[in-house]
Amino acid sequence: MIETARDARPDEILVQEARNGHAEAMDLLVVRHHASVYRTSVAILGDADLADDAAQETFIRAIKALDRYRGDAAFRTWLLAIAANVARGFLRRGRSRREAPLEAAPEPGEEDPDVVHRIAVAERAEGVREKLDLLPEKQRLAVSLRIFEGLSFREVGELIDSSEGAARVNYHHGIRRLRELVSDE
Asked: Domain containing 173 — which CATH number?
């Protein structure tokens, strides 16, 4: 069993251990960074199912390329760059969004006030997500990576193939446009 909550080893140590054949170290890296890889994939693809596929492909590629990781950037940044490339590849190959069958929809429940509140919050979040999807790719990625992943502007710039200053500009323009879109509702 992997105990990531108690494992305080830095990524660099885990990477070295994984390179030396310790499968548990690679498992810890996957568990530690899966959510970030998934969120980055969703930010690019806009589809949860495709993002699952992209996250899986990201880790497969990262494991195969682990010996080529030089450590110039943080492991997380390197991994998110792979995730961004994989997701963009999915878009280029034209993978379409998957539709869930109607039978998979949950049955409506009783009107519980707590449930109604959670639904309202979820709908608002979905509305913001839809508005985020309207932003140009670099703005969308800059906002998503900065807010959801907590990356520095330098790291965001590396992932969107631009300078740190351009990442800042994309982020600020994206936030401004997102506010406009949300306030127009």
From this structure: 1.10.10.10
Structure tokens at 149: 């992943």
Q: Domain boundary at 70, 97, 124, which?
A: 97
Q: How far apart are CA 167 and CA 185, in angstroms?
A: 27
Q: What is the CATH number of the domain that holds 33?
A: 1.10.1740.10
Kindly report whether the global pTM for this prediction surpasses the value 0.70: no
Which residues have C-beta within 8 Å of that of residue 177, sequence separation ≥ 6?
135, 139
Distance CA 130, CA 125 (A): 9
DSSP string, 29-47: HHHHHHHHHHHHHHHHH--
Q: How many domains does the chain have?
A: 2
Q: Is the dihedral of CA 129, 125, 56, 144 positive or negative?
A: positive
Token pair recorded at residue 113: 């006030």
Cα 115 from Cα 16, distance rounded (Å):
46
pLDDT bracket for residue 123 (50, 70, 90) = low
Residue 26: CB atoms within 10 A of its CB come to 19
In a domain, 20, yes or no: yes
